[in-house]
Amino acid sequence: MTSLLPTTERALLHRLAVEQRDGRVPSIIAGLVRDGETIWVDARGEVDGTAPTSDTQYRVGSITKTFVAVLVLRLRDEGRLDLADKLDQHVPGTSIGNRSITEILTHSSGLTAEPAGPWWERTPGGSAGELLATLDGSGLRPAPRHVFHYSNVGFGVLGELVARHRGRSWFDAAREEILEPLGMNRTTPAPVAPHARGWAVHPWADVLLPEPAEDAGAMAPAGQLWSTVDDMARWIRFVAGETGEVLHPDTVAEMRAPGAVDDGDQWRAGFGLGLQLFRHGGRRLAGHTGSMPGFLATMLANPADGSGAVFMANTTSGVGSAIVLDLLDILDKHEPRIPEPWKPRADVDTALLDLTGQWYWGPTPHVLRILPDGLLDLVPWQGKGRASRFRSNGDGTWTGLDGYYAGEVLRVGRAADGAPTHLDLNTFIFTRTPYAEDAPVPGGVDGWRPAE
């Protein structure tokens, strides 16, 4: 584990200790990841008389949903389904049969948050058939389609979708396709020692009530799993893009793209394909919060720099996911990243140099430069407007990777001598001077003139 400065460790421990004391939490453990490595783990409180360690299991609740989402995306990447498919094509006979898989993954199907019957988190779960039989018209909320409405039931249904395609339970699929390949051997559907016990803390006295830890049955895909800080640190790295052979990094990036907004006009939180999304301090974070009787947890990854944080606690209430954001803030404040020294590169394709520099879309200046990984980067000169990176197609054209021009083709117009004259980006024309006369549309328009 990389060593942090003593002042950093003290600041992190202080934040954790305050959370444990003020939240009256029996035990809490947290960890930080940076550059693909766990750089800090600490804990407060006790589990069976001793401090928890990075190998102590806690129930992680709805973080379970992120694993189910990965299983669904694996099926998509194998060609077994399309995210635009209606549920009826895979699990027929429910009231949401005309909803797409994407809508269920992004919690925008209109399906109720909780299943019919007794409180599912505190009672033994039933079979998939029993769950599906309850999904009649009463399970649809009055809010219009495509509006965010969190649904635990939706992920119970997705777990059944996975099981039907794989011919085994969703968890057996997760173990074979995700957990074992990533070395996450301490993530299980039932607790395996050492593990914490779930507690509720009395609101007005310092006494505890043991919480049940039932098998949720068909609802297990919504929140069944137990895990450790070590395993969650690996999952942070996965969500950030270190995906091994489980998924292509581009698929995980697709999962991190916003699909639904969770907090209205502010847009600080939302959902991608099974991943919760947050904006905080200039970061775009992805992961999930989790809660089950007696347990709270949150894991978030920052794909931009491969960092992330996790906490797990054995209490029904008293800890907020803001602690994860605070730990990331403390790390950045006390130990900001030191940039690698700049140095010239030997692998730059100098044939591309004539493309670099200023280009104009109408009167608006842009700059094109070559990135260290051989990509082209087209950005507005003053930072306002559409920016995208482009990857070479090997035939003189380039395809946008992100931003407004994601998936669009960039073509270079050249003069008879081969000199670049304009960029044609899906019919948008960029020229070396504003409205260059010798370029295609707009081709100079009517000329520049002073005010009359």
From TrEMBL:
<dbReference type="InterPro" id="IPR012338">
    <property type="entry name" value="Beta-lactam/transpept-like"/>
</dbReference>
<keyword id="KW-0378">Hydrolase</keyword>
<dbReference type="Pfam" id="PF00144">
    <property type="entry name" value="Beta-lactamase"/>
</dbReference>
<dbReference type="InterPro" id="IPR001466">
    <property type="entry name" value="Beta-lactam-related"/>
</dbReference>
<dbReference type="Pfam" id="PF24491">
    <property type="entry name" value="DUF7586"/>
</dbReference>
<protein>
    <submittedName>
        <fullName>Serine hydrolase domain-containing protein</fullName>
    </submittedName>
</protein>
<dbReference type="InterPro" id="IPR050491">
    <property type="entry name" value="AmpC-like"/>
</dbReference>
<feature type="domain" description="DUF7586">
    <location>
        <begin position="348"/>
        <end position="432"/>
    </location>
</feature>
<dbReference type="GO" id="GO:0016787">
    <property type="term" value="F:hydrolase activity"/>
</dbReference>
<feature type="domain" description="Beta-lactamase-related">
    <location>
        <begin position="20"/>
        <end position="324"/>
    </location>
</feature>
<dbReference type="InterPro" id="IPR056008">
    <property type="entry name" value="DUF7586"/>
</dbReference>
